[in-house]
Specification:
249 residues; alpha/beta; TIM Barrel; six-stranded parallel beta sheet; two-stranded parallel sheet; 8 strands; binds zinc ion
């Protein structure tokens, strides 16, 4: 890497590792340990009641230099709630985080399912919706090497990888051991691309990223939409502008 002359090295293109459904007293510390071992930063989308039960884990996450962002209070699809209910859910969750001095910028709604009013609520609370470009589907309990084989070849600058440091509704596994095991391999793959695992940033998160719901109970219509949007992401159609910048070598 060359010095551009102003004394600062250019930043490596970024890929974001993200973890949903925590904090969890067993798995969040182990994920943190794996990230520390790999010297990588990540972003945690947290569930408010878990934050209230385990506030010390939020401190641990922040102290290690990771990001804490908002997932939900109740883990329900926005399409199954009214505008007013989702608004109240969001207000309550943000208040919980505020009590710990955390003011999220990003919001990943449960299962990545957006209702017609979700964007309006995001605006109201100054949140930017971020889904993901690569779902590991770790909630199924797939072995880490299998997940790496599936996701690794698809990684590129701007990728947002979805994992879980908690057992959310619909998960088909009893622990997050394979997610913990996946961290090192993912980080190695990211660095082999000349990228760096880093926090989500405003620049990186500009615009929606497409995603897939993390449980199979999604309706077939939902699955069709998800397949379409994943296809679009793969082909570049509808890809957020940030994905076009600073491609990994
Ligand atoms: Zn979730």
């Amino acid at each position: 890497m060359t010095d551009p002359g102003n004394g600062t090295l250019p930043e490596a293109p970024r890929i974001s590792l993200t973890f949903d459904d925590g904090p969890d007293p067993v798995w969040t510390p182990r994920v943190l340990e794996a990230l520390q071992g790999a010297e990588a930063q990540a972003t945690f989308f947290v569930v408010a009641p878990q934050v209230r039960r385990f506030p010390h884990l939020i401190s641990d996450v922040l102290r290690a230099g990771h990001g804490v962002e908002f997932h939900c209070t109740q883990h329900v699809r926005h399409t199954e709630r009214t505008h007013g209910e989702v608004e109240a859910d969001t207000r309550a969750g943000l208040r919980t985080l505020e009590m710990l001095g955390v003011y999220p910028h990003f919001w990943r709604p449960p299962w990545g399912v957006l209702a017609p009013f979700t964007a309006e609520i995001a605006d109201e609370f100054g949140l930017e919706i971020v889904l993901w470009t690569e779902g590991t589907r770790d909630w199924r309990g797939d072995p880490a090497p299998e997940m790496l084989e599936r996701v690794g070849p698809r990684l590129q600058s701007g990728s947002v990888v979805l994992m879980h440091d908690g057992i959310g509704p619909g998960a088909r596994r009893s622990g997050c051991g394979e997610t913990v095991a996946l961290v090192r391999g993912l980080v190695e793959r990211i660095r082999s691309l000349g990228c760096e695992p880093g926090l989500l940033t405003t620049t990186l998160g500009a615009g929606f990223t497409v995603g897939a719901p993390s449980v199979d109970e999604a309706s077939s219509e939902q699955e069709r939409l998800v397949r379409e949007s994943e296809q679009k992401a793969r082909t570049g159609a509808g890809r957020p502008a940030f994905l076009e910048r600073g491609g990994c070598p």
